[in-house]
Amino acid sequence: GKTFLAREVAGEPGARFMSVVMTAVLYSYIGQTEKNLKAVFDSARAETPTVLFLDEVDALGMRRGSLTGSASWLRQMVNQLLLEMDSMAGDNDGLYILAATNHPWDLDEALLRPGRLDRTVLVTPPDAAARTAILHYHLKKRPIAGIDLPALTRRTENLSGADLEHLCVTAAEKAMMESIAANEI
Question: How would you class 67 by CB atoms within 10 Å of its CB: exposed for 0-12, middle for 13-18, buried for 19 or more?
């Protein structure tokens, strides 16, 4: 999915790949998210070249104009992200930042300026050949007798890689529960 594509797009030979999960950064106490964000960037800068992948970046980089009233403290989180990306104090040589979002329209405009997240790659749902490969990968260690992979590929059009993985896992769980209920283990 997105993480695989991020690794491929980065293409920096010998670069360390650092994927950031937003739950590790976001915190409920005011100021802690900013500290966590700084720590992530400091860690990425410590061993360059580094590709820093921010998944679900809209959680950190939401439009500041939409933050009003009691949510206005979230502006500091967006400001910290912008500061870490290109402040004069931060040495970002060898630091490559990639980000993914399902809501690009929710990103603050300042994040999309040149030198920040200024290029967009649309990741569409996998085609039939890719769906077959993804399904095969997630089914390779499971008993698949009776599964018509070409038919399954046709029926899963417009599903993402994550959707296909979920389909395989839940189908296996359901089959296991049915086997247990029928005492066929």
Answer: middle
Which of the 8 DSSP states describes residue 90? S
Strands annotated E in the chain: 16-20, 50-55, 95-100
> For residue 114, what are the CA distances in angstroms to 4, 22, 41, 58, 102?
24, 24, 19, 18, 21
- Of 166, 137, 159, the C-alpha closest to 149 is 137
pLDDT digit string, tens, across residues 153-177: 999 999 999 899 999 999 888 888 8
Q: Using an 8 Å Cβ cutoff, are 81 and 44 in contact? A: no
Tell me the pLDDT tens digit for each residue of 16-74.
888 888 888 888 788 888 899 999 999 999 988 888 898 888 888 877 776 666 566 67
pTM above 0.90, yes or no: no
